[in-house]
User: What shape does this take?
Amino acid sequence: MSLLVLGANSLIAQCTAECFAKDKHEIIFAGRNAGQMQKLANDFEIRFQCKAYGIEFDALDYNSHKTFLENVLKLIPQVDYVLLAFGYLGEQTKANEGFDESKKIIETNYTGAVSIIHLFASHFESQRKGNIIIISSVAGDRGRQSNYLYGSAKAGLSAFAQGLRSRLFKSGVHVLTVKPGFVDTPMTYGMPLPKLLVASPKKVGKDIYKAALKKKNILYTPFYWRFIMMIVKSIPEFIFKKLKL
Amino acid sequence: MKFYEDTLSGFGKDPRVKCKVIAPNEFKQLPELVNGETIIPRGLGRSYGDASINENNFVLSSTLLNKFISFDEAKGILHCESGVSYEDILNAFVHRGWFPAVTPGTKYVTMGGAAASDVHGKNHHNEGGFSNFLLSFKIVLANGEMKHCSRQDNSHLFWATVGGMGLTGFITEVEIQLKKIETPFINHKAIKVNNIEKLFEEFEKHDDDFIYSVAWVNISAKGRSLGKSLLLLGNHASEKELPSSFAKKKINLEKKLPVPLELPSFTLNNLSIGIFNSLYYMFSSNKNKFIHYDKFFYPLDSIMNWNNVYGKRGFLQYQFIISPEHGLEAMKKILNKLIEHNAFSFLSVLKKMSDQKGLLSFPFRGYTLAMDFPKTEKVLLMCKELDKIVLYYGGRTYLTKDSTLDEPTFKKMYDGNWQEWIELKKKYDPKNRFNSNLARRVGLCLS
Assistant: This one.
């Protein structure tokens, strides 16, 4: 049993991997900083006495993705779970002013994800098994003026995951879409968020692990975000556009 | 360098100040400091007062620097980053037969914080403090240089840094010796003691048969019951003595009773008595000889955010130590003082200590009592009176808990040691770049 983490610098990803490691999975940590990935793998080997590897992966270097897949399969011939955890929140105001920031947000959250996940999707399809876990965001459920660039990229990712889920269903490959709310990670450090709504990455990691085992389709984590987003989505547009969200 | 603004406090929740926080997951360099800006390392923020805050200046958080680097399974030597917590170590190593050699009363303390406070546990009188088992560490100095410190290498810096409240530099990695255990259980004994004299006798009596000892004192007991307490003793249970039913026991360590919101202040008086009674009951009525380490060492950790019970105004800890010669006399005086002031403490803990080598390490051979109080004007005035008694008997208070000490009192309490420490500060941090609210308050910085 094995898990590949794409974007393993993410605290949510590390906490999810922790659950898999405790359940005796081999883990491959992939991310931009090879040294960091190696360090993480080393930590897991000591902490959980599991087998772990750290390798380099750049979501934006699309041309490298095919070789990356081959390298992963050389390390672990059978990957059971792929966890897509990389993402870039960016700054909406910066994105409003210049295309560079917008491009980075779109490419990291959407294009990069499509490129690498499609490769694994086809691989799993041919194997007729495998699980893909895609960390999207509640921000993709409705565009808000404060972060609609990130939101729109995540909306694209959610729709991508949805379509992929149907496509792979007949091959016995499962796709889980994860929509976390506010989580206490470096992505949100220093943001003025309502404390009671900020979840710990450990809790979110556990939720993801459980949902993956149960082969859930869409996971809101913590669970109450399903209801929060239901309300947010139900506000009529002519009112919503006037809100300062 | 990327930072974010946050309002931080110690565990006592007061004072709360604005700080610029940096939380790297890889240590690259110290932030660029301009115009006299300063920095203080911070782990999980469990020091009670103002040791890990630095108003309008930088705080360098170690919480994401929490990776294990290596573990020597034969010798029990763990090499890890400074943000690794007791919880991390317990979760990873107890089932493999290793335990932290010295542990404070909460597992939410990082190794960097443990070193900077030179923390102590229930075995201090027998086995010493954290630094006794700290083999070496790496520290980044104010000039950006990384130094390896141990009893052999840079030993002056080693002894200035343990107990040095993060003011000599930023510890990035530590190497610690763990202790071999056979089971996760403690063979314990709870003795009800009627007064302080009896308590001191019992402490002495059990010195040799139990490595862990601590007493919870009911500080509302007066007169002939002054110092009425529950003495809790313990040893790591061996495999042989542990009944087989225990080996199979499943322990859920994650169940917690949360105190998510700050309680109104008026609940406190009743609550404090309630907590004492419930702990008292929990241990004294426990017919089992064996209890899980988590209950024995970390009873308060099972109440998440228990610091919220004091409400918005926050609270303070007062922990002092007095030599064995004056211990009994001083304790009586202080307990009577508390009664005089009608001061209630959530939990009052008395224990024995031995000498400790760090320049600013708190312990020396004697008896220590730790208490907590709501932070009110009345309590602050009382602490000044307590300071006088402690000073009179040649004692001192614990910087990690402290939030009331003034500079002259601190310097009298740590006389001889602070001067030596300041000399080393001049050498390793001449521009005073490591600084905190605590350092400014008690004069642990260069003027």
In short: Chain B touches chain A through 18 residues (CB under 8 Å). The longest strand of chain B covers residues 170-180. Residues 268-284 of chain B form the longest helix (17 residues). Chain B has a mean pLDDT of 91.
